[in-house]
Amino acid sequence: QVQLVESGGDLVQAGGSLRLSCAASGSIFSNNVMGWYRQAPGKQRELVASMSSGGGTNYAESVKGRFTISRDNAKNTMHLQMNSLKPEDTAVYYCNLKDVREYWGQGTQVTVSS
Predict the structure, then answer these.
(1) Burial of 64 (0-12, 13-18, 19+ CB in 10 A)
(2) Do 81 and 12 contact (CB within 8 A), yes or no?
(3) Is 68 exposed, middle or buried (0-12, 13-18, 19+ CB in 10 A)?
(4) 18-25 and 11-13 as β-strands: parallel, antiparallel, unpaired?
(5) At residue 71, does pLDDT exceed 90?
């Protein structure tokens, strides 16, 4: 069983920065994709950024140039550096891992005030 634990969510003013972290534990296949999704009230969950174990990345258009995803495969950790935050970035952010199955964390709240 794989567990994902997020941290780093907070209340921040527009233009500020936050760094989210996700720690994965359990039996994880070395070939995997980790990613961040977010869900705002009344909206569907959407991909923010993902990164494969090989280093390939994918970003939502809305965060390109502002957010950076990174991971440490040896430690099974992943981070999301979020800069120039906007009120529309307000959401619950979820850590996701896909190997032969798919796993989700519990989420961490990010609130950006205008």
Answers:
(1) exposed
(2) no
(3) middle
(4) unpaired
(5) yes
User: What pLDDT, on a 0 to 100 scale, did the predictor assign at position 92?
Assistant: 98
**114 SS3 class:** coil
Residue 29 pLDDT level (bands cut at 50, 70, 90): confident
Q: Please spell the DSSP secondary structure of 2-23, one letter per residue.
A: -EEEEE---EEETT--EEEEEE
Residue pLDDT, tens place only, 82-101: 999 999 999 999 999 999 99
Q: Where are the beta strands (DSSP E) in 1-114?
A: 3-7, 11-13, 18-25, 33-39, 46-52, 57-59, 67-72, 77-82, 91-98, 102-104, 108-113
Which residue type is seen at 62? S
* Average pLDDT value for residue range 66-80: 95
With a CB cutoff of 8 Å and minimum separation 6, the contacts of 58 are: 35, 47, 49, 50, 51
> Dihedral (C-alpha) 97, 24, 1, 51: value to the nearest 10 degrees?
20
